[in-house]
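[job 4471] stage=fold_predict status=RUNNING
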Amino acid sequence: MALCRRAAALLLATTALAAAGSATAQADSPGGWVAGGSSTVNSLTGGEGIATRADGSVLTRGLVSIPLRLRFAGWNHVGDPDIANGYVFDAYQGGDDATSKMFEVTTPSGQSYDYTHALDAGELLNNSFDAISPDAQWLVEGEWGTMNRLQVFPAPLTNPSTPPTGGTLAQAGQITLDRSVEDIQGCDFVSATRLVCASDDAAKDVLQVDLPHPLNGTPVTATVTTLFQVPRSSICSGSFETEGIDYDPAAQLLRVEIVSPSVCAVATTIYTYRPTTS
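[job 4471] inference complete, writing structure tokens
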């Protein structure tokens, strides 16, 4: 998050170089990953999230990705998106006094529909990401801070229980985590029963969340495992911020974003990983 601080740095900075790094995941970790290469994108257009289209091309989201009509409506933050069956799902949040969050779905033909969720008792306004289950029936979303849950909604539009042209969205059975996690910035499904998530904790952990069965709208308890840490390499000093995460099942490629400190925040580094086994 730290939206205002980072936005100011992005808009004031004029040059930056983000150095590429390398790291290797633990080969014996559950669902182990081995590091590949890295690349950089402009943080203004890619510093909030990443998703893969069916043709293998990459969609990114950043500060300037928010349409003006949504900004005027008070939605000033876009999270880590996801794509399922050609439908793009974006997670939006408003200001500190917001009483709802919003998910926008864009169809393969380019039509967009907005689904608003009024905050339930105890629910935080943060809408850091959305992750769509492989059957395109469920949307997993995360809040901020130290949490022991992920929230689950019917996937707007692609789940037939939701209105076909936008409307309101109610929670389904949430995922209770067997240990607390901190500042989850993005998650993506690698199978029907496994997610990988990027945490903006002190270690910049990438986590694995294992479900007992595919989501079906009822509450479940999941097991959390730490996989590896996102590299922190930059010519600038200060605090890094992990952002989006994406798994491309066709290419078996995991991508994780991290934003460099200070004026180097104009560039977001994307690190790639492949499974230790096919």
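[job 4471] summary: The CA atoms of residues 33 and 46 lie 23 Å apart.
[job 4471] exit 0
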